[in-house]
Write a structure and sequence with these properties.
Pfam families: Acetyltransf_CG. With 103 residues, the protein is an alpha+beta fold. The chain has helices spanning 53-67, 77-85, and strands at 11-12, 16-21, 24-33, 36-44, 71-74. It has a five-stranded mixed sheet.
């Protein structure tokens, strides 16, 4: 994560995790089911394109999931690809996730 995003707080709203940068948002839609959190869709407003904001919200969300003892279901293709590139995060993926062996 770029240093400029480190002190930006992650906000957990009813259906999304989000960070705000200069009035613009990077977010991940999620569903929480017991001890599992399914990440469904990652998005950053066009004003944040190329800034690293989407990666920052992913990293902050993965940290939140781990710190809260939850298991990840990475349905979002962006999150799935991030975990493939950073296999150390596979530790929080639920082993029952259908694509687990592809990570």
């Amino acid at each position: 994560m770029k240093p400029e995003f480190e002190n930006i707080p992650l906000v957990k709203a009813a259906t999304r995790f989000e960070i705000e940068i200069n009035g613009h948002f990077a977010l991940i839609d999620y569903r929480e089911m017991g001890d599992q959190i399914a990440l469904v869709h990652t998005e950053a407003e066009p004003e944040l394109a190329g800034t690293g904001a989407a990666i920052a919200v992913v990293e902050k969300t993965l940290t939140y999931i781990e710190e809260n003892g939850k298991k990840l279901l990475p349905f979002c293709p962006y999150v799935f690809a991030y975990i493939k590139k950073h296999p150390e995060w596979k530790r929080i993926v639920d082993e029952k996730f259908e694509g687990y062996d592809k990570l």
